[in-house]
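Table 4 source record.
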Amino acid sequence: MDKDIEIRRLLELMPASGRMLTKIIDKPKQSKLIDYKFPRPWERGDRLIAINFELWQRLAESQRDLLLLSVVCRLTGIRWFKPDIYQGLTVVGLGGVALQLWQKDAVGLVVAASLTAIAANQIWQNYRSTERELEADETAIKVAIRRGYSATDAANSLRVAIEKTAEIENRGGLNFTDLMRCQNLRVKIGNQVSALE
């Protein structure tokens, strides 16, 4: 497999937001087939997706496509500065910390800092949850449909890719999140087959 040709093909497959926010790099020494660093709120620049192309070629093209789309959708779905309740609480908490520092109120400072920490932790946990993985899979399937895949083929390709990735990486089985993802995809495939009957 020529990695440069494969990277160009994968870039064309991605949605426009994926091409703008992510960058694919070759990492031949990594033990994972595909990996990414979870972006921090203060980090700017491309969100890197590292692929071991020697392992990557063990998957069928449709499986590679869906696996990459899922990772891209996962990374582009992380928006640290999208207004919601926890981000509002974090901002209020930071304002409270500043006010309590200015007033030199130790108790108020502890309360404001605690509020900030709880709200920020909730945001962090929300973006790292299994639910976000399932949402990324759903979005990846929608992108794949726009690229010519049927919904059933896309869901099945992603399910097989998740299972084969664990096998290729010699993990000895699927972790909890991967099991949930596969189960969700099986349900989706079953629902689509039932709808066709």
